Records
---
Amino acid sequence: MNDTIPEKTKLSWWQRLTGGLKRTSSSLGSAVADLVTKRKLDRAMLEDIEDVLLRADLGTEVAARISAAVGVGRYDKTITADEVKTVVATEVEKVLAPVAKPLVIGDTQKPFVILVVGVNGSGKTTTIGKLAAKLSAEGRKVMLAAGDTFRAAAIEQLKIWGERTKSPVIAGAQGSDSASLAFNALSAARDGKIDVLLVDTAGRLQNKAELMNELEKIVRVLKKVDASAPHAVLLVLDATVGQNALSQVEAFHRTAGVTGLVMTKLDGTARGGILVALAERHKLPVHFIGVGEGIDDLAPFTARDFAQAIAGIE
């Protein structure tokens, strides 16, 4: 074997991705296999296939489109599970290809400010840590701002990531004003010639209005230091919440002007199709997906890999 190192890395990510999406692809695959065995394709089977796709949270528009594509030229013929999987992968890739975009860090803005938003438990702080590790490995000077001042655990977690990635962390006391902290962090990042500033934010949804007001205030205050900031607003979504992710995108997009998505915990759910429904409805760029807790389990999003993994094509 004369594998190059990048190929090995790619392979291990592919293994993690297919492994992570196994719950989604198995539930889809086994349900489809049960349907197509010993039956010829008819209207009833297409409706059953559409139901299977809906249960994987692919969304009504995409599920209808895939079942229609399965039916083309195949009526009254026997059809294999692999044929259905191929159609699923092809149609899902069509939806995902336009949104699979890398996070581009502009060189003209210094520091490049990334505001990270999302509900508590979505994996926001861990995602910031993993991004800090990636950006540092690329040779960028990174600073972290512990803007989730509501939770002491989030502040501590960010400090640990700061130590791991050798990135300075700007933090205040629990309960301190998050907008002031963001202001101080951006000022310090400017003075310290930092390349990228990652700002954590609170994610409690008990009182949506209060949370959203706080986010609006952070954005306003950042603009006082740099009128073009924040340069990216990443919404971190937990795949296990399924359909609830759609309303989270709406709420955060309205308030903070989300520019891109990060989907975490795809390995913890059979509803990985929610990413497809999000792409279909909101058309927002998907920059990264996460399939585990490890530092390398956050990777740039690629439409073809995801489409094949979700369809269960090995």
---
Amino acid sequence: MKETIVVAIGGNSLIVDPKRVTVPAQYEAAYETALHMVPLLEAGHNMAIVHGNGPQVGFILRRAEIAKPFLHMVPLDSCVADTQGALGYSIQTALRNALMRAGAARPVCTVVTEVLVDRADPSFLVPSKPIGSFMESGEAEQHRQEDGWAVVEDSGRGWRRVVPSPLPVEILELEVIRSLVKSGIVTIAAGGGGIPVIREHDGTYVGIEAVIDKDLAAGLLAQQLGADRFIISTGVQRVALNFGKPNQIDLDSMTISEARRYIAEGQFARGSMLPKIEAIVEFVSATGKPGLITDPPNLSRALSGETGTHIVP
């Protein structure tokens, strides 16, 4: 049966070798991921894709820091917009080529997507999302004074900038995305969690210095599209309890009540698996539709129930 599927892929999945992070290398990684999506599209499913952008935003910020004596700094909302265009271009080209070579050509496009956040979100009071490069204390203090950055010392490894990570409230281009997906166009949207914007008192919108969690934005998109399934593609075939320990248990499925219990027990690492589980739980709770977590090579098998971790009401 044809379904509407939202798939979230991580920005780190586009970097296979940390020592080889060129644009061509990221395209190769995007193409490899695209190959694993082809069977889902050959089956006739409609699809929206949300990608991460953490490493790529870091690259832009680092270039800006190096060029600071000569060029302006780049606001964080513009960094997200830049990566939506560049990564969207890479992913859509990779997917278009993979589909064409499989004899299953379909149109693919990228939508530069703004996501509304609440100006009263508590994250603005306590910025906590690390971005960019590690710095010495002197450089961090200079950025704090001259650029207004919030900076923190990170586990003895150096200082880093931290920014708010507010919850996504509304996807402004939703109707455009909905129209594209319903018409069978594979649509890349809300990249990097979306460009964070707030609504001013006069009804206008303005971008802000913040980062929206990509998985939470993807879950919101899946809800608002009325998707039949929400898939998070990550670095593991299944979600595990006691991850990395001798008593590790891989999970074939869990209910949302079990997932909430595991969250309360601290089973999932913050900044890693935790936001993925939270996003899936929110989607399943709101819609009653299933969620799925697996790695790219097993997308097709997981969708047919052979592997992956299935989250159900």
---
Amino acid sequence: MRLAIPDKLSFVLLAWTCAFLLPWQFNIPFIVLLVLLAFTFNPFKPVTASARTYFSRFTIYAILLVFVLVGVNGLLLREGPVRFRFIVLDFYDAGLTYGLTVSVRLILLSLSVLVFFASTHFQDFAKYLQSLGLPRSFVSIILLSMFFLEQLPHRITQVFTAQEARGAPVRAGIVARSRAFFLILSPLVLSSIVESVERGVALELRGYHLLRTNKDIRQDQPTSRVWRFAFLTLSSIIIILSVIHWLSN
């Protein structure tokens, strides 16, 4: 089974609609569904090994984020009854509810976008942007930026290793890491600029700006719109019901 990029974008729109308009209790099953789709459903599976690694790490970070936001808000927002007490710390009901609402919404918003980009090839995304009529120079900037973000952790590790080989104490502690930040930032930015220029020249030499027209690219897109219609219909229903609920109150 294959989903076109507009189908995936309509699914992201549905996730964002649920995140902003539905109570946080309804968003938790949606988050679980997204995680299951990313691991079991081929159209939403990460397309590269690095994307799978980032998705797994984000899942762990999301769990930690929930605990941090819920705990901090439960302590600081002292409204309502005390839900529970840990040693001498009181966690209040209003703060816990607010922390759950914020954290669940943030996770659903970011997770839906992450699933989209992790399961979509850069080439297919570029073709889709070109089919919308965007200039190829603008598409090139977006692709180079996405590639830079994907390679950023690997580049930071390379710069760390190079600085350590030169005797810089980049891993000695918090103070040393803070001082080494500027030593890492300069070569990281300069190397990224150089590689971006080289990639731009390589694309130019390969005739990237002479590729097929937008009309030809549109013909390559899958013609099935069933999933797109279903996702957009669900989003519209949620919006309409939310407006009716708001007007009735």
---
Amino acid sequence: MELSELQEVRRKKAEALREAGVEPYPARARRTHTTAEARARFADVEPSLPEGTEDAEPIELAGRLVSRRHQGKTIFANLRDGEGELQLYLRRDALGDTTFEEFLKLYDLGDFVQARGTLFRTRMGEVSLRVSDVSILAKALNAPPEKWHGLQDVETRYRQRYADLIASGDVRRVFRIRSTIISAMRRFLDERGYLEVETPTLQPLYGGAAARPFTTHHNALDQTFYLRIADELYLKRLLVGGYERVYEITKDFRNEGIDRNHSPEFTMLEFYEAYADYLKMMEAVEQMIAAVTVAVYGEPRFVYQGQEIDVSPPWPRISLRQAIREASGVDYQQHPDREGLLAAARAAGADVDSDLVWPRIVDELLKQFVRPYLIQPTFLIDYPVALSPLAKRKPEDPTHVERFQPYVGGGEIGNAFTELNDPIDQLARFVEQQRDREAGDLEAMPIDLDYVNALMYGMPPTGGVGIGVDRVVMLLTDQPSIRDVILFPAMRALTAEAPRDAIETPV
């Protein structure tokens, strides 16, 4: 790799440290306190200290240099670790000429250092560490992003997330909240007796959703495998086997377009409960989202894209047919054939491709006329059979199934059913999906005969839910794009050879 001018300057500083007998990448670090623990310690001891004195017990901090200013025989620097920042106060007479000059001339912003000293409060009121010894832990060859503006180029932010995290406390906050959300989801289910399980990522046959898969080849088995598009069918096999409540938080993969709501790799929570139906699962979803929101904000309310949203249960429930009819004037029940529904959708102003099959036209009506306006939490319920091949029919209306989707902030965050457990009906639905595939619907599910065979052993009445974890994180962190809540989102490869300075962190 050819280094840039700036990188070469920093590399030479690393060599100068080595020549002075200092290893710029030592194998060991010493730290007695984080910056947060140091502040807490000083808050405890300061009331007992004579005014203007310092804590007598030395401590050691470690972290990244994020700012520095030089005033004669004094250097003020800020050290940041995973819990915050603390000011370092370095004096020439305390460190000695050699160490002081090394810190001044051979250390740079972005370097990792460790500092030993005692805590005190400056005349300006800043809790600081009076440094008696400082040493380098890792020499940074790239300059950190500019402090006040961070990374401005969106593409660079996604490609170099490490630099984005260095630059922005808000970005670090987003991913801390993401961790809180996933922990709260797991806690909610664990407390209700659900068993966390793991199912295959590589599958010999994909299913459980309407999506195109990523395909790979298993050399040892000489067989085509697929990255899972959902874990639904495997989780329901576990209910056949005797478990009554299971869940999985996992990565799914769909070979589809990328936009603000879709990523080819995303995180999904799915949970299934025996002897439950979609009504019970609606209650579980609204309770979970409320609990997760409280875990983040302390109350079941948050602001997303300028709108305050209250997720307190219960949420309104509207049938899909009613929602589409009221928003577009199209009653899909009155247009059972593809050509008729296509004409009605276009007459209502929908932008619909002429080659879409009937269920995809219904889905487009939902996306274009209904979804953007469901800001407050709402359940859309009761979907056409053709749109829901894994859900149980409504007893009073066999043209529809017991399915719901939760919508919040103008977007869908999940999908759920009273699960179909009749193996013969399930096989017929798979066959119908195959017809749709032959008619051009590349997202239609293949026939999974092993899953049908599992159902033939008997699966109890079951309610199941899938929640898009990334979309929940988008809502609770007020982020407009799914790529803002995925640490390392999929990006198009750079085709041209990168310029020499492309390996630097842009300022």
